[in-house]
Amino acid sequence: MKNVLLTGCNKGIGFAIKRELELSGYQVFGAARTEDDQNNYLSIDLSVTSNAKKLYQKARDFLGNIDILINNAGQFFYSSVEEIDKDSAEKLINLNFITPCLLCSYVAKDMKKNNFGRIINIGSISGVVGEAYASVYSATKAGLGGLTKSLALELAQYNITVNQINPGWVETNLTNNALDKEERSQILNIIPQRRFIEPIEVAKLCKYLISDDAKGLTGQLINLCAGLSCGA
User: What is the tens place of the pLDDT at every residue in 168-224?
Assistant: First the structure.
């Protein structure tokens, strides 16, 4: 049985990943901001970067060993470049980039000793093609891609793979609540497949990437976006 540390596990993509992996026999320790009384869970704010070490230690104490890290926790906000404020930008950078970087650093030490590891970073198509009024968010996800490629090279000789999934528009309650009927229609018109990605698609891709069948796949940024990254 392989042990998984998964951040942002209580909603949307993270919830789908947790359920899919547990059904497949993985032992998952999850983290998110919401309260939960499960033993295999920690309620924590990962925009506070010092909490990354606390999460790692708690997960390691529970699991005994961390074989797989999935950095899914993240946040998004719209803002024109003139309206970016320091506090909001720092919080976003901490959560979307610094904390994932630190968690990679902590688990890599154990993975190298065990000569096995799988790291998956959940990015965004916005970090690949850019998104107007989401410059800081796009920058954090682009930075995560650079981290993914660099760590893949650094850790390859230790049987550790590092990959990134970049979802496009995903069918979640958060998305549905944020869009009215007209906005949703406009977005669907620019997506080649004319649909949103389902969270289970991301979950199943994660399951493949951590499997032995994908051991030769590392340093890849996979755009799971219904064709959105290909252009009009």
Answer: 999 987 777 767 888 889 989 999 999 999 999 999 999 999 999 999 999 999 999
Give yes or no: 208 in active site.
no
Give yes or no for a contact between 190 and 232, defined as CB atoms under 8 angstroms apart.
yes
Residues 61 and 42 sit within 8 Å (Cβ to Cβ) = no
Q: What is the pLDDT at residue 232?
A: 59
Token digits for 187?
């977005």
Intra-chain end-to-end CA distance of the chain, in Å = 44
Q: How far is CA 142 from CA 84, 146, 149, 223, 229, in A?
A: 18, 7, 11, 12, 14
What angle in degrees, to the nearest 10, is found between the helix axes of 86-93 and 135-155?
A: 30
The one catalytic residue in 41, 56, 106, 137 is: 137
Alpha-carbon span 88 to 84, nearest angstrom: 7
Would residue 72 be called left, alpha or beta, if left means φ above 0 and alpha means ψ between -120 and 50 degrees? alpha
CA dihedral 94, 97, 100, 101 (to 10 degrees): -100
Single-letter amino acid, residue 83: E
Say how far apart CA 163 and CA 119 lie, in whole Å: 6
